[in-house]
Amino acid sequence: MRTSHHVFPTVIPKQCSRKAGTFRVMAQEDGKIAVVTGGTRGIGYAIVRSLARSGYKGFVLGYNSDHEAAKRAQAELAEEFGVRSVCVQGDVADAAIVRQLFQAVQESFDNRCTAFVHNAGLILGFSSKSLYEKAPVVDERTQQQLLAVSTNPDVTPSDTELDDMEERFEYYWRVYTLAFQLGMKLAVRCEGFQHIIAISAPGCNITYSPFIWLDDRGQGKAGMEYLVRVAARLYAKKGVNCNAIIPGLVLAGGTLDSIKKSKTLKTATDDRANNTTGRLMPPGEIGDVVSFLCSPQGLAITGVALPVDNGLHLFGR
Q1: The sheet that has 195-199: what strands, in order across it?
Q2: Where does this protein have coiled-coil stretches (predicted)?
Q3: pTM, entire model
Q4: pLDDT, tens digit, 9 for 90 and up, residues 188-216
């Protein structure tokens, strides 16, 4: 059984003609197009807003399950920035959903795409529920085990004896590494393509101390960071830059959802923030860095895993 997905009707800004093809011509002549996974809320939506402010005129936005957030994002983008957006629903762990994103690029923007941003991600059992049929089911007991791992430095994943470890590792590999690789291959086939961004996480490369509690998600994002360097070399002569951004403690998305559900996790998050500047970052700060890297000014920066984290990488765990 295939994962269900939903493509919202395109929202056309008020100032644009509703005649067929009119906005498409505008997008071709003077606008840039971006595909952003997980682009309707949290860090992803902040990225989209920053790109819209910098002149991007069209978006294909992937999202997992929050229909209301997707509809709200479309409406706000049209009203505030006069841009066109198409939303595609589904878990990117399913390769068919990644292909659907770029099918939307073909159908709505004549196969024009300037930037691909792979931001999608979730914390199973905390931030979102996957509709992908092969996604592990996280029950209350497993949630408590995961919480113990993430907030106690003396507890390791092996201590929790999670029965679904193999499923979890495969799932996050699909969400991050595989979806990113497939997305890049489809993106570089588009006309006018120039920029690739992967949103990673702390602890996933040798410049950070490893986060013990991030082992399942971390291996998927570590693979994604490696692919960033491969793609930077592979596509350099095509005029495409490829970078990873490593956000710190951002008050949005999975972090916000998780700390709302758990006082223990909120305390741990606050403690980590106090090691640096003492504040959680607004997601717009991540969006502005993405916007710079997806511009002519940022084109010379490529193959980099860039911490945007208030210095969190300097303090270990």
Answers
A1: 84-89, 56-63, 32-37, 115-118, 195-199, 241-247, 305-308
A2: none
A3: 0.83
A4: 999 999 999 999 987 777 777 777 667 77
- The burial class, CB within 10 Å (0-12 / 13-18 / 19+), for 227 is buried
Give the side-chain half-sphere CA count within 13 A for 296.
3
Domain ranges of the chain: 22-309
Q: DSSP string covering 167-208, please?
A: HHHHHHHIIIIIHHHHHHHHHTTSBT--EEEEE--TTSSTTS
Cα 228–233–234 angle (5° rounding)?
Answer: 95
d(CA 30, CA 136): 44
Structural contact between residues 124 and 135, judged by C-beta atoms closer than 8 angstroms: yes
- Record the tokens describing residue 214, joined without a space: 């991030």
Backbone phi and psi for residue 11, each to the nearest 5 degrees, phi listed first = -95, 120
Would you say 70 and 63 are in contact if contact means Cβ atoms under 8 Å apart? yes
Please name the residue that has the structure tokens 């949630």. Answer: 143
Topology given in CATH for the domain delimited by 22-309: Rossmann fold (3.40.50)
Per-residue pLDDT of 62-100, as tens digits, reads 999 899 999 999 999 999 999 999 999 999 999 999 999
Eight-state DSSP code of residue 281: B
